[in-house]
Design a protein that fits this description.
Number of strands of chain B: 2
Radius of gyration of chain A: 16 Å
Largest interface: A-B, 51 and 44 residues
Strand content of chain B: 5-15%
Radius of gyration of chain B: 14 Å
Largest sheet of chain A: 5 strands, antiparallel
Structural class of chain A: alpha+beta
Number of helices of chain A: 4
Largest sheet of chain B: none
Strand order of the largest sheet of chain A: 5-4-6-7-8
Distance between the termini of chain A: 24 Å
Distance between the termini of chain B: 19 Å
Number of strands of chain A: 9
Helix content of chain A: 25-40%
Oligomer: heterodimer
Number of helices of chain B: 3
Shape of chain B: elongated
Order of helices and strands of chain B: EHEHH
Strand content of chain A: 25-35%
Chain lengths: 147, 69
Amino acid sequence: MDAVDLELRNLTYAKVVELGHVPTAAEVAAAAGCDPEEVVAGWRGLHDQHALVLNAATAEIRMANPFSAVPTAYRVHAADRWWYANCAWDAFGICAALHVDGQIETSCPDSGEPLSIAIRGQRPDDERLLFHCLVPAARWWDDIVFT
Amino acid sequence: MNLFRSEERIEHWLGGREPGATIPVTKLSELAHAWWGDRLAPEWRPHTREQNQAILDRLDLTGEFWRLP
């Protein structure tokens, strides 16, 4: 990743934390002092490097992992805000990235039972839960949204 | 990549599909902190494949399923 890509990537993630949501190209462009089209062009390069994931149908970010730009089944309360995570791994990842305790609200995909997990000092309060990863690591990026 | 209450729930949810890998939520938390902990750091640099594989290996997430491409 070159310095230009890194600068755009770091600015994009800084805006996630500042705004409390994954930013639009216009929001990043305003901070960078450039056109939104330039931001989108840069994001396409970051997408190709798996540094973020663009929505296939638009020029907006779908995932700034571990943060999700769209509502998901994994809501996380951390650093006085609610966030959406892309999956269970990313839900813990939001607390990890922010270096704070937090609360994950989701449900069992089989039964629909609500699951509420507090994370304190990097540990979940309900240690009986299980994490299932369906796709092998070698294929995670074949379809990262499905993964 | 989901959370479940039990092995039985996972098996029912799979509905005959080939299972992936199941780990305790405590290990998931360790994994997430190792994987994402530097994500917002100003000095962040992309993890290399080797760095990410080392995280998995350190947590005993080994074998073909956890082998990165």
